[in-house]
Amino acid sequence: MRFPSPEKIALLVAAAAAAISLTWFLLRSVEPGVRRMRDGRDQMQKAPNVVTDAPPEGFEPRIWREPASQARGPEWSYDLFTPPEIWWDGASGEFRAETASPATATSPEPEFCSLEILDVHRLRFPLQLRGFLGEAGHWLGSFEILRSGETMLLSPGAECAVLGLTLVAFSVERRPLPGGDAMDAMPSWVARAMVKDSTGRVQELVGGEDALMDELVAQVQTEPAGEKVSREVRTGDVIAAAEGDYRIEQIEFEPAAVSVRRIGEDEALIRLVPRPAGDPAANGADE
User: Fold this and answer.
1) CA gap 11, 230 in Å, rounded
2) 8 A C-beta contact, residue 286 and residue 109
3) In which order are the strands placed within the sheet that holds 212-222?
4) Cis upstream peptide for 61 (omega within 30°)
5) CA distance 278 to 273
6) Rounded CA separation 2/6 (Å)
7) Is 36 helix (H, G, I), strand (E, B) or coil?
């Protein structure tokens, strides 16, 4: 058996001594850090939770500024959390903004009103497209004047003087009819017209469809002389009731409602809604 030389034995002894020295040094350096971490954790657990009302140093409270008035008026102002409510005023023909919508600015205590709202719907356009005749490039539209029931044949550029309307465009095209089976899906000829009034407003008319306007009307029932009377009203109209006259301030479509104001009384609005089916109670103020 051959033994290592004295030089190799000395080298191995020196390496072992160095490893032992390094291990001892590392253990000595880590132990104080571990002890400090343990001591700090113990102090944090034992420290009381102190609550103070004093703000931190350098803290400056900030206050929300009042919203600035807009060019269209103070009612159009808004802040971050409270935008104004925009509603359409049919009497003036423009949008209005209020912090509280006229439909919700009712009196603190609901008032009785003998008016009854039967229905709210959009107004039909006074001229309706009923059909067409002719051939491609020479079409004529068949129109009905609702007020009189009269029928007119018009081509593009022609005028309906009694209504102050001008036919600016007319076309006939094929389009599929809605349906599930093959016969219903067959294309059909459909007429389309564009008419313009004296203000330049354009209304589209489609054959076979009822043309409606944006203006709303309400069917109102009242008993001014002990007998029930029903009539259509628009925004701004005045209607008589047993207890006095009311002005129609606003008409809403969805949900259906009418806001009225008693003439000669306080400024509170009364919001009326159609009576639910089967409810025999008289119409009154909406809560």
Assistant:
1) 120
2) no
3) 116-124, 212-222, 229-233
4) no
5) 14
6) 12
7) helix
What's the chain's length in residues? 287
For residues 216 and 87, the answer to whether their CB atoms sit within 8 Å is: no
Record the tokens describing residue 39, joined without a space: 């001591």
One-letter amino acid identity for 97?
A: A
- In Å, how far are 44, 52, 53, 57, 192 from 49, measured between CA atoms? 10, 10, 13, 20, 78
**Tokens encoding 248:** 């129609």
Decide: pTM greater than 0.85.
no
Separation of alpha carbons 207 and 190, rounded Å? 6
Residue 89 phi, psi dihedral angles, 5° rounding: -100, 105
**∠ CA 65-67-70 to the nearest 5 degrees?**
150
Which structure tokens are listed for 8? 């190799």
Q: What is the pLDDT of residues 19-53, one digit of tens each?
A: 777 776 666 655 555 555 655 565 555 556 665 66
- List C-alpha distances in Å: 250 to 46, 101, 107, 287: 69, 10, 16, 17
* Highest mean predicted confidence (pLDDT) among 86-100, 134-148, 225-239: 134-148
Q: Return phi, psi of residue 7, to 5°.
A: -70, -40
Residue 126, helix vs strand vs coil: coil
| Residues forming a β-bridge with 260 | 248, 270
Task: Please name which of 250, 245, 187 lies closest in space to residue 216, comparing C-alpha atoms.
Answer: 250
Mark 52-74 as b/e (b = at least 16 C-beta within 10 Å).
Answer: eeeeeeeeeeeeeeeeeeeeeee
